[in-house]
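Data card: per-record layout.
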Amino acid sequence: MRALELQRDVSIIDQTRTPPDVLVVDVIHYPYFDLFQHTLMVHDEIPTVVTIHDVIPLRFPNHFPAGIRGTIYKWIQTRKLAHVTAVLTDSESSKHDVMKYLHVPGYKIHVVRLGVSHGFTKRPSDKKAHERLEKRYQIQGRYMLYVGDVNWNKNIPGLLHAFARIKSNRHSGISDLQLVMVGSAFVTPGVREVKQIHALIGRLGLRDHVRMPGFVHEADLAALYHGAFVYVQPSYYEGFGLPVVEAMASGVPVVSTNGGSLSELSEGIAELVHPDPDGIYAGILSVASYSPSHRRSVIHQGIEFSKQFSWKQTAIDTLAVYKQVAHVITP
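The structure for this 331-residue chain is written out next.
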């Protein structure tokens, strides 16, 4: 099968200059869909697939203002979307949202879950190497981990308020914890949310207890997951929540809120909580109360659950959609 993947950095003008009869492909797949940018072009003669990870800006418009230009692009994108052959999305929750907010019929939408790289399933064998890693990122002792962005839906303020309660509760048994927040956005200058996060860290008296190393390569990230006392996903809403599965694959107990697709990833394994500081705090305390045997059991369940999320399966499921829309019959 001949497939064409048009990346985000290929302009729409360049795409439209290529006549359909020159595009000798069976399927066009747009792996990126932006509501507020003109990223989608549909050739009527060629089956078109588009990936929509989530529609969070449509669920929470007050927190994601589109502006005049964004509103125009949203209108264009929505009209184009009506003519695509199939939509891929990451979860049942996102499928429901695409149907509700973008009015795509359910029969066009295929849930193709994301995968976990093999690197997260490997256990560090060299204790000294892990110690060097912790030194590189200025981590001392036990820590809780967050991996991701700083957008409103990530609820970083809620995480920080919960962490402040942990630090102030000397009887919790975990007041020694540090908070490590990984992601390039945390060290991006000029970002409004980052300024607010730094200001809140200062007001809560957490400057000596929060580490923000920025972008971390996968090998180091896997080791940081593995060394964490707990992984916390504080989001108000997610379209999938890949770090939750990465943490489980790495052998880390997880506290996760129940927003969007996150409840699909708990399977009774993660501590599923409400996305407010009290809920997040209670979830972390619950993990702290695990007996050694229960902690081992939760870790084992998480590792086994994460095995169903592989990039190979993602590729297989994606190819199945290609074949379906291109009317290729599997022998």
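Known properties of this structure: The chain has two domains: 3-115+311-325, 118-306. DSSP finds twelve helices and eleven strands in the chain.

See the next section for split statistics.
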